[in-house]
């Protein structure tokens, strides 16, 4: 599914070149449950952004579902992202002025999904995260755990094969955090390829496959 070969990512900061990723080689097959761990500044989020097609490597190749996505246009990458990849972030990234239901609906609006189908799928998505009674609430009316559940429902509304989660429990208490991990793992059990970036070893160790990245390189 995902095959990264000799991935490097450099950033220019003033007169210094920062080597965020140094020759990363990584393959993730369909349906895997992978955690990526490492200290702050190790390159975890940079790697996730490249896998998510939110950033491009300085050099190297990234093959996704048989396509070399390092050679796609921005428009092509946006379509591949929309159709294949869901995202869950530490800070939720919900739109404050929209209700929970409207936040979930937004990716379908952008994709041109019919209104009747959108409304039906939103109700199904709310039910799937046990928040049918919170659809008309705005983000400031929801708890942290509820916000992350809505974010997961939004991430999955287009039925992506890949779900990427960057510190998904970082803003939650331990009880809400474990509920979110349980929900993500349930999606993996249903066939979704799950990759979690975390600094929490207790969460990282739950994955079936664990990767550690230090100084921009994967430890062997």
TrEMBL record:
One GO CC term on file: transmembrane transporter complex
GO molecular function terms noted in the UniProt entry: ATP binding; ATP hydrolysis activity; transmembrane transporter activity
Pfam families cross-referenced by the UniProt entry: ABC_tran
Residue spans crossing the bilayer: none
PROSITE patterns, A to Z: ABC_TRANSPORTER_1 (PS00211), ABC_TRANSPORTER_2 (PS50893)
Record-linked SUPFAM superfamilies: P-loop containing nucleoside triphosphate hydrolases
Signal peptide location: none
Domain ABC transporter residue range list: 2-220
Presence of keyword Transport: yes
Domain of life: Bacteria
Keywords attached to this entry: ATP-binding, Nucleotide-binding, Transport
Record family assignment: Belongs to the ABC transporter superfamily. Macrolide exporter (TC 3.A.1.122) family.
Listed name of the protein: Macrolide ABC transporter ATP-binding protein
Organism per entry: Methylomonas lenta
